[in-house]
Amino acid sequence: MLKFMDLVLKDLKDLPQTADTHSFFLEMLENFVPYMPNCLYEEVFSVFDKLLHLSGDALTEAIVKKTALSMIDKYTAKGKHYKNSISLFLKKILEVKVRPRHDRIISGQNMDVDEYGSEEQISIQAKTNFFEVLCDLCFFENIDSLQSENGEEAKAQMENHDMFIEKLQFFIDMIG
Description:
Elements (H helix, E strand, L loop, with lengths): L1 H11 L6 H14 L10 H12 L6 H12 L7 H15 L6 H6 L6 H28 L13 H22 L1
C-alpha cells in the first residue's frame, strides 16, 4: 500500500499548486502522520515527504506539532530515511519565500517598499512560529520524570524519561 501511495504521489508532484490541492494534501498529511509510528517500513517517510511537499505552505501549528510527536514516538523507525524526512520537515517549516526587489520592478508591480516589507515580515513570523512550536515541545513541555518527586511507578518514570530523551534527540536531529 505504501509503495502504491508513493507512486501515485510521485506522479502528482508536478500537479499545479492551488489552495484546493494544498488543503486536500494537508488533510491527507494530517490523517497519515499518526500512522507513521505504527509502520515497520521506511517507505512511510517517502510518502510523508511527498505529502509534505504537496501540502505547500498550508501547514498549521497543530499539524506541525502532530508531526513532531509522531516523529518522536518511540515506535517510529529511526533510520536513514527518518533523518532525511526530519531535515526536509525542518526545511519546509523554516523556508521563507520572498521575491527580491528587482523581480518586483521587472514584473511591473508598483509595490511600496514598506508594504512589501510587512508582507515579508508576516511570512517570516509564521515560519518562526512553527520553529517556536517545536522548541516549546522539545524543551518547555519536556519534563524529565526522573527528577520529579511525584512517587510514580518506576516503569512509568522510565517511559517518561525515555520520551524526554527522544524529544531532545529529535531536536538535535533537526538542527544537525
